[in-house]
Amino acid sequence: MSDTSTAVAVIAQVSKTDPATITPDMELVADLGLDSARALELLVELEDKLGIEINDEDAARLNTVGDILHYLEVR
Amino acid sequence: MGAIDRTWPTSLSEAVRRAARDAPEQGIAVFDGRARNLERRTYADLEELALASARRFHGLGVAPREPVLVALPTSWEWLEAWFGLLMLGAWPVASSGAGAMAAAEAQFDKVERVMAKIGARFVVASETFQRQAVDQGFSFAERGVITTDAQRRAPERSFQGPRDAGDDIAFLQLTSGSTGVPRAVAISHRAAIHNPLASTEAIGAPLGAPADDWADGMVSWLPLYHDMGLIGCLILPLVTGLDTWLLRPQTFLARPALWLHNLGVRGTTFTPAPNFGYQLCVERVPEDQLASLDLSSWQVALTGAEMVRSETSRAFCAKFAACGFSETAFRPCYGLAEATLAVTFDLKGEGVRTRPAPVGADAGFAMSDVVSTGSPVRDTRVRIAAPDLSDRADGEIGEVLISGPGLFSGYYNDAEATAECMHDGWFATGDLGFVHDGELYLTGRTKDLLIVHGHNIMPDEIERLADSVTGGGGLLRSAAFSVARGATGEEAVVVVEVDDNDPQRLSQLGHAIRSKIGRAAGLPLADLVFVRRGRIPRTTSGKMQRGELRQRYVDGRLERA
User: Fold this and answer.
1) Assembly ipTM
2) Residue B192 in 3-state DSSP?
3) Of A25, B30, B239, B548, which has the highest C-beta tally within 10 A?
């Protein structure tokens, strides 16, 4: 599985959303309804599943699904 | 186990010296962000580090009796800063630092407003915090940030140890008012010593001895800028010479099982958490991890800081009974920053005890029953008052008033706010409840405050974000409050007045508002309601009546635009 599809799968699982409906412009809090606990769960799940570490400064800038996918591409 | 001197210390700095002397092997352990490593130091180390830190603060020009913000994550940097300021006789003010997925901008804005309100010259923070605050043009950032690096490199300058005691201020703790800037609750040395000692007595009551007699320590994930984290999980173990193990809040939120795992391996423990923390464990600890958890030595699981919900404690007991968690370990309590922390504790130790929700209980909290939060701690009194402050009879709902030695010395630099809630030595809490058989039950609150996940949020913070959204829909004014629909506790609702009722433009506006509040406050909205101009009730003087608005919403009487 590519990083992108893994990330979408993790986002879908944490937000309890159908992966087919997830689009890059979706906001994590406003559209996917993630509260602070869920947002942190997402962060740690992404780190574990992708074997990466996302620092706090970068994490603070991840507002949308697209932000996460872009971050994974350029990191 | 601590073997601390039973005569009470007269100041918090004396408590540090005593812990170093009487409990030199006990101390504080701080986990890193993923709870993989921990840094443990003894109280003897703490005293040494704090005194050196105090000399460096003095070298940097920090003076005794001046408030200094500490905006760092839970870490030894935090502990060195907070206790260094304390030993110098300055007043540390723990403030939330920018965490993962937190909105940096809102954080800086809050720090700036708090500093202005309490006349603070400095905030202790990370280099990143300073750089970002400078980049975003915050004026305090140029000269007002003492970075941890600068603090570490500062020249030491000796100082006269403060003779603080009794009624002198020891530190300030921030709490949310209903509008504007957080309030700085001034806590005296007397209160800071009395409240933890009264608490260990009450916590130990069903076992016949103060908690520090039989416990090895505590394991906490609560933020240190919150009274339950600071007083309950740091000052209490320090004053009683117990070990304490501190996880960052983010670590717990991402993986609640890490808290339970550590509770199980640190000997006999007691620990507080808000209802939401227990609920998170119910929902998010994977079934396949239960077998590896041993909760049999977790003697007391205190639950407070927000409405205690019996469905949560029942679900928690059902899920974790197999891990050895005892139903009777649950001990509801009630406290608030203005009382230092603790006001009442369940003293019976029979688990969560409830009564049917009485007529007049807040329907917006969706409770079928109300939980006993127990009886007042030593020297502390609770009474229930009518709006004219006369006493309510047993069982009648009214405002909760408290008095006792744990009471704060006032809101720092805000005599007006202090005068509003102090009545002849009684503090009016803004919480509603009743007393039955000498025990306090909470049923709602009069103050305009959202309590989401144990965190107090000022409605004003959310409304200012909503009001700042421009674009379709013609937003006029907004109001925020919270309601609970079940075990997950309170969630945020925003009501917005508009002149427009074009569905497409309202939908755009709705998305923009949710996005703004999501990005800046990290808060999802349970509901966003558009109403016509003038539908948000106001008093004749134009003051918004959030309580009345919320009641109409809960009753389904709010007409949508």
Assistant:
1) 0.84
2) helix
3) B239
- The model's pLDDT over B506-525, given as tens digits with 9 standing for 90+, comes to 999 999 999 999 888 888 99
Adjacency order of strands within the sheet including B27-31: B38-42, B27-31, B243-246, B217-220, B269-273, B298-303, B330-335, B342-345, B375-376
Contact B253 A36 (CB under 8 A): yes
Name, in order, each residue with C-beta under 8 angstroms of B511's C-beta and a sequence gap of 6 or more: A30
Determine the distance in angstroms separating the CA of A2 from the nearest CA of chain B, rounded to an integer: 24
The residues of chain B that CATH labels 3.30.300.30 are 450-555
Beta-carbon separation of A29 and B514 below 8 A: yes
Nearest CA in chain A to B281: A37
**In this structure, what token pair is assigned to residue B406?**
């744990």
Picking from B32-41, B319-328, B375-384, which range would have the lowest pLDDT averaged per residue? B32-41
Tell if the CB–CB gap between B101 and A31 is shorter than 8 Å.
no
CA A70 to chain centre: 10
Q: Enumerate the residues of chain A whose CB falls inside 8 A of the CB of residue B514.
A: 27, 29-31
B183-205 pLDDT, tens digit per residue, is 999 999 999 999 999 999 999 99
Model confidence pLDDT, tens digit, residues B438-497: 999 999 988 888 988 877 888 988 998 899 887 656 678 899 999 998 778 899 999 999
Which residues of A are identified as catalytic? 35
- Residue B241 near residue B4 (C-beta atoms within 8 A): yes
Beta-sheet pairing, B490-498 with B525-532 = parallel
For B286, other C-beta atoms within 10 Å of its C-beta total: 9
A67 touching B (Cβ < 8 Å): no
Q: How many CB atoms lie within 10 A of CB B449?
A: 21
Question: Under CATH, domain B450-555 is a member of which superfamily?
Answer: ANL, C-terminal domain (3.30.300.30)
Domains located in chain A, CATH noted: 3-74 (1.10.1200.10)
CB count in 10 Å sphere of residue B424 = 7
Architecture of domain B194-222+245-447: 3-Layer(aba) Sandwich (3.40)
> In which residue are the tokens 């029942």 written?
B314
Query: Cβ–Cβ contacts within 10 Å for residue B155, how many?
Result: 9
Q: Which residues of A touch B36 (CB under 8 A)?
A: none
d(CA B48, CA B59): 17
User: Rounded CA gap, B468 and B93, in Å?
Assistant: 29
Q: How far is A13 from chain B (nearest CA, A)?
A: 13
Choose among B98, B104, B518: nearest Cβ to A27.
Answer: B518
What DSSP string runs through B126-185? -HHHHHHHHHTT-THHHHSEEEHHHHHHSPP---PPP---TTSEEEEEEE--SSSSPEEE
Closest by CA position to B283, among listed B255, B322, B303, B321: B255
Q: Tell me whether B104 touches chain A (CB under 8 Å).
A: yes
Residue ranges, comma separated, of all CATH 3.40.50.12780 domains in chain B are: 8-165, 194-222+245-447
What's the pTM value of the predicted model, to 2 decimals?
A: 0.92
Interface contact flag, A35 B515, Cβ < 8 Å: no
Asked if B197 contacts B8 with a C-beta cutoff of 8 angstroms, the reply is yes
